[in-house]
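Quick review question:
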């Protein structure tokens, strides 16, 4: 199955799951999206400046017991296909049912919503998969409390492993700060990975550009459409993120410390840079599509020119052959001994004169 058909099938499955919510009251917990792993896995990383505790995997009751911890607690959930796990965990931390509904809907627009005791933020984690550097999107939801951070991912595997290692080894300032700084580091890791994806996308665009310049073919048009679609999805994921980061950097929430605001502004700048890169790629793709169409038109024009030249040369030759093919009895050259070679010489001379005339006009 082609990449195009796989993506179309995945989109249709998501739309089909979304239709299950028709007629249900607000706050109904229905998982909308693809089930990416067999079981839901919870992990806990609890730390302060003096030490840390880590449990992978952890049972739901044990994870809930960290709510009243004085240290910072990061609870991560891999897998959203079991609404009961999400509901029980969120209910224990006092998360609103509408937020729980948004967590299970994996087609959310990046946004940030502030409540009395926590902040809800959602964004997309983006990967490139070998061998075709296919772009994959995964929704990540963050719930930032005073001393806890809940993260919900569609599947295991993320870009947070370097951060986890720094927490274990007490490197940097993570263990000296609160949950707002931890949320910044997670968002920063996601945004930094956008540049890796953008670089891969740029390499694919350059490869298609070289093919279009040297030997344009229908397969290149198919790749162009895939690239254009990936760019649109990437833009859809990054543009709203700028608004979310701007809300964080304004410092309107009491859960975000003043010392963390400058870090969120830095991530905001990175997001703007990524948006500029995406817009540049969109312009390049539009130009490549025009280049492909122009190349195809030029190729068709060259073929038509050759056919027109051949037709132009053979029209007088067909006239000569038609005249001497009438076989009237009183034609003067009909019984001439040298009539046949003379006709051939005359036809060759006419063709040569036409070729020279066409070249002098610079039509060939």
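Suggested answer, residue by residue:
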């Amino acid at each position: 199955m082609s990449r195009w058909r796989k993506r179309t099938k995945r989109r249709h499955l998501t739309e089909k799951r979304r239709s299950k919510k028709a007629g249900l009251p607000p706050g109904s917990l229905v998982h909308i999206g693809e089930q990416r792993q067999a079981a839901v896995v919870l992990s806990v990383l609890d730390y302060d400046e003096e030490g840390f505790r880590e449990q992978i995997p952890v049972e739901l009751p044990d994870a809930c017991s960290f709510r009243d911890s004085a240290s910072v607690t990061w609870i991560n959930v891999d897998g959203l296909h079991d609404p009961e796990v999400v509901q029980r965990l969120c209910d224990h931390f006092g998360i609103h049912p509408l937020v729980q509904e948004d967590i299970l809907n994996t087609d959310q627009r990046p946004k940030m919503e502030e409540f009395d005791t926590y902040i809800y933020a959602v964004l997309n984690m983006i990967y490139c998969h070998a061998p075709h550097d296919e772009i994959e999107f995964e929704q990540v939801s963050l719930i930032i409390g005073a001393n806890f951070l809940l993260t919900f991912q569609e599947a295991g595997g993320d870009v947070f492993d370097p951060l986890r290692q720094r927490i274990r080894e007490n490197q940097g300032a993570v263990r000296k700060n609160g949950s707002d700084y931890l949320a910044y580091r997670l968002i920063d890791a996601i945004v930094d990975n956008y540049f890796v994806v953008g670089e891969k996308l740029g390499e694919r665009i350059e490869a298609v550009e070289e093919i279009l310049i040297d030997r344009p073919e229908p397969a290149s048009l198919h790749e162009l459409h895939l690239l254009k679609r990936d760019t649109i999805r990437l833009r859809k994921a990054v543009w709203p993120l700028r608004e979310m980061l701007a809300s964080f950097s304004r410092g309107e929430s009491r859960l975000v410390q003043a010392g963390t605001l400058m870090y969120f502004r830095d991530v905001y700048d990175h997001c703007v840079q990524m948006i500029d890169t995406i817009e540049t790629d969109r312009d390049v793709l539009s130009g490549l599509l025009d280049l492909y169409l122009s190349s195809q038109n030029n190729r068709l024009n060259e073929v038509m020119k050759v056919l027109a030249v051949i037709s132009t040369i053979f029209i007088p030759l067909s006239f000569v052959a038609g005249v001497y093919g009438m076989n009237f009895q009183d034609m003067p050259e009909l019984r001439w001994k040298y009539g046949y070679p003379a006709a051939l010489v005359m036809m060759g001379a006419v063709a040569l004169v036409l070729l020279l005339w066409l070249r002098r006009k610079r039509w060939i």
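Why it works: Residues 258-323 form the longest helix (66 residues). Residues 233 and 263 are 26 Å apart (CA to CA).
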